[in-house]
Amino acid sequence: MNRRTFLAIGGTGILFSLSRNVHAVSAQTQSPFRISLAQWSLNQTIRVKKRSNLDFPRVAREVYEIDCVELVDQFFADKAKDQAYLTELKKVADNAGVSIGLLMLDTNGPLAAGDDAQRAKAVEKTYPWLDAAAFLGCKTVRVNSRGDGSPDEMRPRIVDSCSTLADYAAGRQLNLVIENHGGPSSDPAWLVSVMQAVNKPNFGTLPDFGNFPDDVNRYDAVEAFMPYAKGVSAKSMAFTANGECAETDFRRMMRIVRDASYTGYVGVESSPKGAENEADAILKTRDLLRTIFAEQEKVQPIFNGKDLEGWTAVGGGDWVVENGVAGARLIGRNGKDWSTNPEKTGSWLRTNSQYDDFRLEFQYAINAGGNSGVFFRSAEARNPASTGYEMQIIDFAGQEPSTSGAGAIYNVVAPSKNLVRPAGQFNAVTIIARGKQIAIEMNGEKVVDAEFDRAAKGYIGLQNHDDHSEVRFKNIRLQEL
């Protein structure tokens, strides 16, 4: 599929004077996400009656040390209006210290059915489940986009059903979400078009790491869903010998989740073969998420999203902090004085602190025909691309890799492949510097891994190249190694 990033342009711009230095960042720790347990992870165990629906919240807490659960209506399909049963279920959860965060609906019928009466019946069957979810203290209810006909025929039907149900859910302080769950819902363009058509604040997506056909790039798809996410399902099917998910790179996926500024629950939804393997799969998925949480917690913002605290401007140019629905961006415009002369500098923005070994994460977008770069281990005097390193940023989609192309260590080493996206779309980059070893990842894949004998310590900087270029940065985070 084509790579897509959905960019919100609107926002309030604040132009800062760059004639003065600014002081060190007052760091604000950013907690990555929380972990919940999807009941589907024990679906085979429940079906053979080794566990029950009423038992599930206690098991989540006592066996798996997870304090938020996601229920599936299949396991109490006749109980939507059974107040005594719902009261008992809530009591079990409360006594275990467990919240019920999400209810997944499968039994309410096809909300995109071509037959009007059948579709209306599905909507009517959903109402009591929304009431039950509100009583249980849920935040979110997941529905499916099932029906008949072509995707284009199904779209207006699911939009109509979900618009009605989202309004009903809003009156009960609930979110309503669609998961990529097969059929057209696993087509990112289709599901995003549904989000845009319904356009209600409590309506969104439940991105699942799996549930995609082979011709859909799951990472690009989840990235497309994340601006609308009200929850995330960390689907795992099998594991490697060292405990990694075999079919999905969880670290890459969770970087996408974090870059979307999502800090809510990520549900453990393991689905191994055989009930006897379910407990182990839950623990492996949970532990993998815990490991990633600990790793992400160490990589903290060095751009606070409000102003230029912690950064110093060099050589002029304009820098703007813009806050929009997709988060804060740091924008460079009207750069000047750049040349290839190693003795001269142009306009750039540097950190107040210097760094030697580090992990640097950021996203950037460049305009058509634009040019920029990220410096590291650079000095303020002279050209920072010569005193340290520059990872080249340039409008370069579809071209052959080169030492002056996107993702290169400028004029030194070309990336192994060109993974840069078209102008205007955000790219996710990681730069890891350990001694002489420098590695660069572009959009989830390593493209540079080499040793260099240049500077061992210096500033991190963002280049503001010329008055024809506009570069946007966001999610700038750092871990000192």
The CATH homologous superfamily of the largest domain is termed: Divalent-metal-dependent TIM barrel enzymes
CATH class of the largest domain: Alpha Beta
Biggest beta sheet summary: 9 strands, antiparallel
CATH architecture heading of the largest domain: Alpha-Beta Barrel
What does the radius of gyration come to? 25 Å
Overall shape: elongated
Secondary-structure class: alpha/beta
Which regions are unreliable across 5 or more consecutive residues at pLDDT < 50?
1-27
Average of pLDDT: 93
Number-wise, the strands total: 22
Distance between the termini: 36 Å
Overall structural domain count: 2
Q: Give the DSSP E fraction (strand runs of 2 or more residues).
A: 25-35%
Binned, the helix content reads: 10-25%
Word description of this protein:
By secondary structure, the chain is α/β, with parallel strands linked by helices. It has 2 domains: 195 residues, Sandwich (Jelly Rolls); 265 residues, TIM Barrel (Alpha-Beta Barrel), CATH 3.20.20. It is built from 10 helices and 22 strands. A hairpin with a 2-residue loop joins strand 19 and strand 20. Helix 5 crosses helix 6. The longest helix has 21 residues. The radius of gyration is 25 Å and the shape is elongated. The protein starts with 11 loop residues before the first strand and ends with a strand.
